[in-house]
Structures are given as C-alpha cells and as structure tokens.
C-alpha cells in the first residue's frame, strides 16, 4: 500500500473554480469525488499518483430533478440518495434498483454516480441502467458545455470521450413512460456487496401486449457495457412468450466477448448472460401478461 | 456429578461487552507509543528462489530509516513448533511470496515502506511447486533438504478388504477443499518497547504468550527474563494467531535499536503471509452392510502445508483422528501426507484439520444411506459412538458422548421432518430446495501430547478474587467464562472476580488458547486452585481455633464451617497475619494415554460432538446456493454462558458457510491473486440468514461443572451438511469446496437439470 502523502489536493469552493483549476492544470489532475474507487487505485498504482481535484464539497452538483419529463441527476449525487429518491423510484425504477446494489451502505453513502460513470469499470452497476434509459452526459469545461450520449462516451476499456479540462456535471434521461417497464439484474458471487460477474438492465415498451421497443444492456462481458442488439431485435414486435424470451436470451451471445478472470471464466459469463436475461425476461413476461 | 450453580449456565452479560461496543477496548493495533519506529517487511518477489545477494546500503540511507535487519541479525535463524524449518529472515532461499528477506525500521510508515523499495535482493528463481500432487512425486524439485514430504504416516486397524467384502454398499470418491483464510478483523499486529526494568516487551495479537515468548528468546538467543509477551484483547484469531507473526521482528527491532516499534500487517500482507487452513485432497472408500453398519473406511489424506510445516504435523493427526466421523468402524486404513509446496503456509484454523476430512466422510455416509435406502439420520444413529464403545483406534471411550442426542435433536427438528414438503414447495421455476444433515466430532485438549495448565488465584484484601492465567481473549469470551467458573467455585459474587490474562510477566502458563481447550483447562486449574486455597485457609483456621479444622467450605462470599463463618476480607487478613500467601496456583494435567503408533497425539480422551442441518436453495440457472436456514447442534457438556455459546456457534456456522460456499483463494503458480476482501469473498450479512443454535448437555465428568469446549465443533459439519442438502435438492454431489456458483452451475448443467 502506497502512501499518498506527497500529492497535492485542490479543493475548489465552486464549480466555476473547479473548472478554472482543471483548465489551469490541464491533464495533471485526477478528479476526486467519493473516492471509493480512486483512492484504492492510487494506492495500488505502480506509477506516481497525480494531484487531485477534490470536488466533494461542491453541493451544487448534488440534485435530482424532474424537469419537463427529463430526469436530471447532479454528478456528485450519491447512490444512497438515488436509491431512496421518490423521483427515481417513480420515473426510473431500473436505476433505483441498480443503485441499491452498487455496494455496502458505506459505499452507497459515499460513492457518486459521476464517479461510477467516469471510473468506467465494465462491471459498474449503474451503467447498464443508464444505457437502457438512453442517458445523456453533460460535460463542462471553462470554455463551454458539451452533451454526449452515454453509449458514445465509452470508446474502449477505460477509454472515455472526455477532454482534459472537462468535468462530468450531470446525467439526464427521459422519465420512463407508463407503458415502459425496466428491470436490473446482477450476478455477484455472494448475496451482499460483491462485484458483478455479469450485470444488465432491460427496458421494454409494451403496447397492447406487444413489445414496441426493447433496450438491453449488459455489463462485465466486454471492455465496455454493450447493448444486446440481437436480443432486442428478437423481442421487438413480439408478444412475450416462453419461446420468444428464450430465443432473445440466447441471441445476446453475438454481442458479448467476456474474458476469464478471478471472478469467473468466460464460458460461465456467457451462460450467465443468457440465463439472467431469461430469468429477468421471464419475470417481465409475468408482469406484462398479468 | 451435577452441581447446582449460581453463575455457570446463566446469561451473564460479558464483562467486555460494553467497552467493546463503545469502542474503548484497546487492541494491539490501536496502540501508539512516543518515539516509536515503524516496521515494514521486504518480502520475496518469487514463490521460490535462491537468494544470491542482499544489499541494504541504499535502504539504510533512505530518509527516516533507523535500521535495516537481515538474517545476519538473527542468532538462531530457524524456528517452528514441530520442525525448525522456517527462517525468521530468509538467508539461502525464499520458499513462498510471504517470506521476509529484510525488515526496515523507520520514523514513519511511509519512510519504512519507501526504504523497502530500496533494498536490492538478487534472486535466482527456482522451479515453483504449487500442486501438492506434483510436489509428492519423487522427481519433484525439493523445497526443503529432506524433500517435499513434511510428514507421512499410515494407521490401520482391522482389515479393510475384509470389511469391503462384507459390505452391501461401497462408495469411493475424491474430495478437495481450498485453503481458507482467517480474515480476522484485526490483522497480525503488535508493538514493542523496553520497559523501565530493561525488559523487551512485545504486545501483539496471539494465542499463546508463553509459546510466542519461547520463539522470541530461542531465535534471538535472549535471556528469558529479558523478554515479556503480552497479548491484549485480540481482534479475532481462529487459529491464525496460533503461530508467531510479528513478534520476533518487533523484539529484534526493539532489542537492536532500544526504541519502541510497531508492526501491523496490511490486509494484503495478512492474506499472503498469514497462515491458512490446509488445502486438502481426500480420497475415501467406505463400505456398509445391508443393515446399515459401517464396516470399512480406506482413506488417503493429502494436506498442503505450503512453504513450512508450522503446526501441520498436529493438524494431520486431527485429520486422521476425525476422518472416520463419530462412528464405530471395525476396519480402517488411513494414509496421510503433509506436503510442502511454494504456496501460502498452512497451519491452525478452527477445526484444525477436521473440516476437510468431514467434508468427505459426511458425504460418504450420506451416499451410503441413499444407496441402502435408509434415512440419513437413522443410518448415522445406527453407527454413532456411545460411551463405553471402543473407537476406531482401539481406545475405549469413557468420557461423555453426545452424538446420538445431537442426531436425535436433528431428527426431531421441523426442518428435517418437513424436508420433503419444503423440497416440493412451489417457487420460481429455476429454484430447487433441499435439506441436508451432517455430523461432527473433534477431540479437545492436546490429545496424547502433554497438556498442562496453571492458573493463579489471589484472594485480595478487599475480599475479591483476582484470577490470573495466560489464556488469551481472542473474542471467544474465555475471560467471561473463567469469571463465571471462578464465581461458582469460590461461591462469590461475579462482580468481585477480576481476571488478568495473557501476560508472561503477570500470569502463570495456562498454555495455548487453541484446540477448544481453554475453558476446560483453565476451569480445571481453577478447581485445583480453589482446593489449594481452602487447604491454606484450613491451616490458618486450625491455628486460630487450636483444633484441626476438617470441615470448611466457601459459601456466599464466606468461608464457613462448624461454629465459624469468616468473610473473604477476614480470611485475607488472617492469611497475611500468619505469613501466608494470599495467592495460590492451581495446576491441571490433562488426563491422557500414550499415542498410538504412527501418531503424535491420537487418541484424545475427550471429544466434542455436533450436527448441522441446512436448508438450501439452488438456482439451477446460476449455480448460486443460498442457505435460508441452518441449525447448529452441539454437545458442549454443559453451557457456561448461553449468549457466548450462541455467539460461538453462530460465528462458526457463518465461517463454515464461507468455507462451504464462498472462500476461494486463487493461487497461480504460488502467487495469490485474491489478496483483498473484494476478490476473496467472506460471507456478508446478507449471506448469513437464520441460524438456530441447539446445545446438547451431555455433562462431562472431568469438565468444570460438566463443560467441554465449544470453539471449533460448530464449523466442522457445516460444509458437508450444505453439500448433502445440495444433493437432496438437485441430485449432484459437490465434491469440491467451496461450492461456488460456477462449480455448482457446471455440475447441474452436466446433470441435465432443466427449468420446470
């Protein structure tokens, strides 16, 4: 475990000041929010740790708003708040569900949604939900504001469309409609607080018993979160049936490229993707066909 | 003989409960001294290598560094309880990645760690032997001079071939279990200083202050009176602090620099360099007659001890002794090997070799019951040991045997009676339910090895008692138990009993706190102390009354007899006035027999027994096994403190769940990949559901107030009960623990189970 006593920590008092500092020290600062991933990574890193921009005090980045059918979440909002938020529970229950599984109570209280997005772990539990919600990320810099669709944000394993000087400030997405249902799933190797071997989210729009739209995102099975487009196609235009959901579940194999690691083999991950999609769709089928 | 008690058996709140709940208790890792040096270790970069050169010159010049020590600073650089095969600081070779080549003492933790990076060690890598089966081969690269077999033995009674011939059902299987990491909340930690009298004092988490003391003085060749070992409250041990960890290094730094020092292992250091439960390969062929009598057990036991023997020789004995379960079997043939590899060092862990073999044997027994069409509990009861029986090793069981009562409690439990209903209850289409049972046996005390313990009792001037013993408070509640036993033995209010523990400068040697022995041992030594004190008091009273006082007894804080009654305060004064000590020592020698040929400590005279029932839910689409309910039944002789007992059995069940389902160190050619709590998963609160504890009181005549040990018995039958429940649920036999989702998934898939 490395000591971090040599690094400098800048703690701005406003977003403006934070953007100013990011601009001034272009490419030299790592952004510290909840720190639940970053500090551990810095202590384990072989190379010298960068100086830190500590944005934890910027309360202006903590909010959840329902604004004209768009849900907006400030990047520093912690997962306990997201899980418990009536707005999220009502308009994006799939995200509330995912947020609750991110970690222990201590982690939920500390870790921020912005941190989870920028840390870019392929196994991050909030990402599949944000993918199926079609989330948009707001990136601010001293010179301006840019919006990026979450799917465009990830360019490869831990490769982000994030310029030096830019700070993720907000996540937004359309509120779920009455005829949309969403479910999150996660396969951890124990019941509580485990990093996902496979995770995913499904969002279905159902009209008169037929699937009008389907969005499925899978995590921990590729360098980034991926959409299971073949599975989605299999579902769209169909009534949910035992046969259809089984085919849709199996169709995910074309979208994923898992690897072997300490948590599981690639072969097992593939089977888990299929089986979790099946189990989750089975439960959604029950809800739809009630 | 059963005695009425005031304190023993009562739910008395533990004396350390409030201070621990409030965070006031000081553990070794909480204590900081002025002018203290921080110690950091330079550990091996290879699982196996020759050391060509060690150069510490740059490290010595590193900022804040006060000293750097290597093997040249250790006068006697080999230690070990059974085999002196382990260097304090490596000289010729490193044998695993936890091996320490040098230690740095610096003004701060950061400076010490920085200087470690500056130490140059030139290695010549050697072949890494990571698989115990490979290590056993005659042409395997030898890790130690004598080869890779640290110990092997064979013990036979009867004739197994005859037994198999007479058997109706014979099952043969190979089982494997992974090394388990103790994962105590407090890692290996301690500090040291030279006291005002010039004594090097080491305060560190441990399980035996006198053994730690011995390891320090023998390696550093210091006069025994110049070293003192203190073990404060320990944040968990489970056997993982039975061996020395930081102690010798702390003594070395303080001895050489004259300054206080602190050495606390990080979590990843602890996972790498702390001892483990032995990984095991157990092959078993077991036969039973048509009427359900076990007739023969042919067993091969291979335990991976890693780079050094540590307590492995004794662990192997416990494996041999317990691999036949709590049953009568006329024919046995047991071959056992303790094998060196370049893996992490294995040593003591709750159960001490028993959980691995019982994972095997209790599944064997289950299979035989199924094959013979018998109820698994009925089958076990038919073979269960009874008092007066001759055990597998030809020894007669003359102490208390509660296994039948444990099994009957399981048989009568609703979980067992309703197991078929539970199994067929409707739920999600991919969930299967099952109920399993397993039995357990384990000797307590050190068996046929010499086992003696002393306890001192001081009758204080204020009429209270101070009990002094070197037992260690590792969270198990021994201090509370000792106080309750003392209060009943001396018939005094428990509030008047003080307990001083685990300090070679203040307490007599009660020997190791392990083998579920300390309550039994300290309790019996206390009994002797009570007799000794009463004899002393009789002597004084005889002088005082001018006639021989034959009858005197403790009663309600007084010493009473015909025509007299004296408070403890008065008695304390009388003793002083007669020039007699107010302190007595009780010494207890554990009754034992000679070990059977081929063994070190087999047989024990005293055994604990137990049984576990488990309800499991298996998700056949993921392989995930959950345990909604677990029943832990244990023959404890006599309950001393019901709350502590519940805590011990629930804790053992949770740790057993981890061993059964989760805890899997991944070792790649001697390199541990799972060095933190994110990759090495122990049960979280969500993994531990309802646990019901049922104590069985078989009353052990030799035990204090009938009590036996309780520390280990609760873990032993957890994994096989879960395995048997999985079989009941999905009809596959999981022969490898931990039974992780991935392993169970492939087994279930292979069996062709489908969603209903």
Automatic annotation (TrEMBL), chain A:
<dbReference type="Pfam" id="PF03450">
    <property type="entry name" value="CO_deh_flav_C"/>
</dbReference>
<dbReference type="InterPro" id="IPR051312">
    <property type="entry name" value="Diverse_Substr_Oxidored"/>
</dbReference>
<feature type="domain" description="FAD-binding PCMH-type">
    <location>
        <begin position="2"/>
        <end position="178"/>
    </location>
</feature>
<keyword id="KW-0285">Flavoprotein</keyword>
<dbReference type="InterPro" id="IPR002346">
    <property type="entry name" value="Mopterin_DH_FAD-bd"/>
</dbReference>
<keyword id="KW-0274">FAD</keyword>
<dbReference type="InterPro" id="IPR016167">
    <property type="entry name" value="FAD-bd_PCMH_sub1"/>
</dbReference>
<dbReference type="GO" id="GO:0071949">
    <property type="term" value="F:FAD binding"/>
</dbReference>
<keyword id="KW-0560">Oxidoreductase</keyword>
<dbReference type="GO" id="GO:0016491">
    <property type="term" value="F:oxidoreductase activity"/>
</dbReference>
<dbReference type="InterPro" id="IPR036683">
    <property type="entry name" value="CO_DH_flav_C_dom_sf"/>
</dbReference>
<dbReference type="InterPro" id="IPR016169">
    <property type="entry name" value="FAD-bd_PCMH_sub2"/>
</dbReference>
<protein>
    <recommendedName>
        <fullName>FAD-binding PCMH-type domain-containing protein</fullName>
    </recommendedName>
</protein>
<dbReference type="InterPro" id="IPR016166">
    <property type="entry name" value="FAD-bd_PCMH"/>
</dbReference>
<dbReference type="InterPro" id="IPR036318">
    <property type="entry name" value="FAD-bd_PCMH-like_sf"/>
</dbReference>
<dbReference type="InterPro" id="IPR005107">
    <property type="entry name" value="CO_DH_flav_C"/>
</dbReference>
<dbReference type="Pfam" id="PF00941">
    <property type="entry name" value="FAD_binding_5"/>
</dbReference>
TrEMBL record, chain B:
<dbReference type="InterPro" id="IPR046867">
    <property type="entry name" value="AldOxase/xan_DH_MoCoBD2"/>
</dbReference>
<dbReference type="GO" id="GO:0005506">
    <property type="term" value="F:iron ion binding"/>
</dbReference>
<dbReference type="InterPro" id="IPR008274">
    <property type="entry name" value="AldOxase/xan_DH_MoCoBD1"/>
</dbReference>
<dbReference type="Pfam" id="PF20256">
    <property type="entry name" value="MoCoBD_2"/>
</dbReference>
<dbReference type="InterPro" id="IPR037165">
    <property type="entry name" value="AldOxase/xan_DH_Mopterin-bd_sf"/>
</dbReference>
<protein>
    <submittedName>
        <fullName>Xanthine dehydrogenase family protein molybdopterin-binding subunit</fullName>
    </submittedName>
</protein>
<feature type="domain" description="Aldehyde oxidase/xanthine dehydrogenase a/b hammerhead">
    <location>
        <begin position="22"/>
        <end position="127"/>
    </location>
</feature>
<dbReference type="Pfam" id="PF02738">
    <property type="entry name" value="MoCoBD_1"/>
</dbReference>
<dbReference type="InterPro" id="IPR036856">
    <property type="entry name" value="Ald_Oxase/Xan_DH_a/b_sf"/>
</dbReference>
<dbReference type="InterPro" id="IPR016208">
    <property type="entry name" value="Ald_Oxase/xanthine_DH-like"/>
</dbReference>
<dbReference type="InterPro" id="IPR000674">
    <property type="entry name" value="Ald_Oxase/Xan_DH_a/b"/>
</dbReference>
<dbReference type="GO" id="GO:0016491">
    <property type="term" value="F:oxidoreductase activity"/>
</dbReference>
<dbReference type="Pfam" id="PF01315">
    <property type="entry name" value="Ald_Xan_dh_C"/>
</dbReference>
């Amino acid at each position: 475990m490395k000591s971090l006593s040599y690094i400098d920590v800048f703690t701005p008092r406003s977003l403006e000041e934070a953007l100013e500092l990011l601009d001034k020290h272009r490419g030299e600062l790592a952004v510290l929010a909840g720190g639940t991933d970053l500090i551990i990574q810095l202590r384990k890193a072989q190379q010298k740790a960068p100086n830190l921009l500590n944005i934890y005090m910027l309360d202006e980045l903590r909010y959840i708003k329902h604004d004209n059918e768009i849900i907006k979440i400030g990047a520093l909002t912690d997962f306990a708040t997201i899980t418990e938020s009536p707005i999220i529970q009502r308009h994006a229950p799939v995200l509330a569900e995912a947020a609750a599984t991110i970690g222990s109570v201590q982690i939920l209280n500390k870790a921020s949604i912005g941190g989870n997005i920028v840390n870019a772990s392929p196994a991050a539990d909030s990402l599949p939900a944000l993918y199926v919600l079609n989330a948009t990320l707001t990136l601010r810099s001293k010179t301006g504001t840019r919006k990026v669709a979450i799917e465009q944000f990830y360019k490869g394993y831990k490769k982000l469309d994030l310029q030096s000087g830019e700070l993720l400030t907000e996540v937004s997405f359309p509120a779920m409609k009455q005829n949309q249902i969403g479910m999150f799933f996660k396969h951890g190797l124990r019941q509580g607080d485990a990093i996902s071997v496979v995770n995913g989210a499904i969002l279905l729009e159902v009209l008169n018993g037929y699937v009008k739209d389907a969005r499925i995102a899978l995590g921990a099975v590729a360098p980034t979160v991926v959409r299971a487009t073949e599975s989605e196609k299999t579902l769209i235009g169909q009534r949910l049936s035992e046969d259809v959901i089984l085919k849709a579940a199996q169709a995910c194999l074309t979208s994923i490229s898992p690897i072997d690691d300490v948590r599981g083999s690639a072969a097992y991950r593939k089977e888990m993707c299929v089986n979790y999609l099946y189990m989750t769709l089975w439960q959604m089928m029950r809800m739809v066909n009630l | 003989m059963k005695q009425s008690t005031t304190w023993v058996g009562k739910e008395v709140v533990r004396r350390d409960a409030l201070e621990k709940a409030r965070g006031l208790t000081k553990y070794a890792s909480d204590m900081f001294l002025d002018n203290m040096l921080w110690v950091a270790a330079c550990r091996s970069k290879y699982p196996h290598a020759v050391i060509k050169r060690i150069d510490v010159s740059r490290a010595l010049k590193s900022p804040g560094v006060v000293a750097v020590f290597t093997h040249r600073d250790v006068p006697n650089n080999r230690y070990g309880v059974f085999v002196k095969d382990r260097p304090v600081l490596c000289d010729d070779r490193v044998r695993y990645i936890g091996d320490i080549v040098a230690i740095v003492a610096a003004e701060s933790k950061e400076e010490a760690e920085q200087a470690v990076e500056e130490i140059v060690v030139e290695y010549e890598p050697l072949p890494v032997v990571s698989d115990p089966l490979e290590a056993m081969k005659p042409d395997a690269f030898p890790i130690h001079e004598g080869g890779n077999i640290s110990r092997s033995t064979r013990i036979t009674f009867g004739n197994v071939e005859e037994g198999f011939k007479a058997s109706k059902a014979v099952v043969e299987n190979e089982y494997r279990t992974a090394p388990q990491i103790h994962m105590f909340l407090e890692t290996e930690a301690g500090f040291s200083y030279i006291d005002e009298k010039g004594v090097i004092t080491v305060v560190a988490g441990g399980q035996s202050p006198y053994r730690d003391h011995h390891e320090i003085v023998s390696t550093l060749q210091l006069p025994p009176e110049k070293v003192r070992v203190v073990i404060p409250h320990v944040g968990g041990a489970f056997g993982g602090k039975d061996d020395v960890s930081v102690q010798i290094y702390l003594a070395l730094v303080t001895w050489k620099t004259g300054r206080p020092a602190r050495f606390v292992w990080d979590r990843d250091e602890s996972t790498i360099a702390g001892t483990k439960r032995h990984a095991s390969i157990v092959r078993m062929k077991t036969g039973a007659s048509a009427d359900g009598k076990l007739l023969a057990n042919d067993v091969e036991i291979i335990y991976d001890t890693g780079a050094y023997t540590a307590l492995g020789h004794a662990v192997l004995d416990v494996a041999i002794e317990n691999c036949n379960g709590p049953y009568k079997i006329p024919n046995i043939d047991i071959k056992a090997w303790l094998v060196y590899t370049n893996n992490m060092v294995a040593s003591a862990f709750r159960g001490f070799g028993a959980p691995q073999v019982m994972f095997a044997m209790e599944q064997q027994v289950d299979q035989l019951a199924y094959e013979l069409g018998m109820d698994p509990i009925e089958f076990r009861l038919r073979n269960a040991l009874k008092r007066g029986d001759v055990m597998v090793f030809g020894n007669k069981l003359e102490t208390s045997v509660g296994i039948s009562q444990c099994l009957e409690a399981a048989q009568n439990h609703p979980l067992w009676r309703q197991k078929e209903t539970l199994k067929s209850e409707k739920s999600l289409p991919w969930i299967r339910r099952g109920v399993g049972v397993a039995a357990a046996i384990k000797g307590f005390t050190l068996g046929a090895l010499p086992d003696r313990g002393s306890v001192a009792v001081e009758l204080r001037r204020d009429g209270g008692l101070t009990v002094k013993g070197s037992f260690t408070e590792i969270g198990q509640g021994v201090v509370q138990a000792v106080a309750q036993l003392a209060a009943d033995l001396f018939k005094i209010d428990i509030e008047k009993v003080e307990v001083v523990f685990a300090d070679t400068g203040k307490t007599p040697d009660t020997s190791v706190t392990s083998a579920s022995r300390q309550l039994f041992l300290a309790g019996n030594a206390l009994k002797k102390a009570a007799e000794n004190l009463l004899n002393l008091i009789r002597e004084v009273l005889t002088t005082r009354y001018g006639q021989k006082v034959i009858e005197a007894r403790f009663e309600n804080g007084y010493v009473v007899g015909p025509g007299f009654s004296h408070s403890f305060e008065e008695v304390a004064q009388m003793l002083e006035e007669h020039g007699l000590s107010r302190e007595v020592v009780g010494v207890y020698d554990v009754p034992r027999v000679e070990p059977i040929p081929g063994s070190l400590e087999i047989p024990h005279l005293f055994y604990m027994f137990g049984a576990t029932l488990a309800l499991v839910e298996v998700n056949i689409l993921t392989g995930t096994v959950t345990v909604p309910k677990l029943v832990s039944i244990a023959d404890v002789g006599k309950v001393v403190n019901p709350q502590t007992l519940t805590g011990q059995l629930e804790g053992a069940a949770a740790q057993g769940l981890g061993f059964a389902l989760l805890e899997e160190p991944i070792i790649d050619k001697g390199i541990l990949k799972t060095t933190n709590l994110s990759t090495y998963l122990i049960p979280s609160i969500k993994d531990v559901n309802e646990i019901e504890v049922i104590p069985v009181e078989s009353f052990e005549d030799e035990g204090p107030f009938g009590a036996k040990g309780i520390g280990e018995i609760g873990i032993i039958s957890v994994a096989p009960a879960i395995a048997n429940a999985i079989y009941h649920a999905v009809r596959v036999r999981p022969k490898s623990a931990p039974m992780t989702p991935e392993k169970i998934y492939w087994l279930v898939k292979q069996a062709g189970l489908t969603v209903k």
